[in-house]
Design brief:
3-stranded antiparallel β-sheet, alpha+beta, 80 residues, Mth169, Chain: A, elongated
Length: 80
């Protein structure tokens, strides 16, 4: 089974990388782009035994809280 964790900066956090991408898109002729936010996708492959565990989603959220995301400045979403 594959789980996906989507990590994004919180809305109130300045996204310097996203702003650089937005400006570059404008220079390349892609007009009308008013905002870009850059995040990351983490894909986690889970073996069959652990994929059936009733606490799988909670374990993945704990992984995200402790290592995959910085909860102070980032939001995340776990998808199974």
């Amino acid at each position: 089974m594959k789980a996906t964790v989507l990590v994004r900066l919180k809305g109130e956090v300045l996204d310097v990388q996203g702003d650089a991408v937005r400006r570059a898109l404008g220079k390349l002729g892609f007009d009308g782009v008013t905002d870009v936010r850059v995040g990351k996708i983490v894909e986690i492959e889970i073996d069959e035994v652990h994929a059936r565990a009733p606490d799988l989603k909670e374990r993945l959220q704990k992984m995200a809280d402790e290592m995959l995301a910085n909860p102070v400045i980032e939001d995340y979403e776990v998808r199974l």
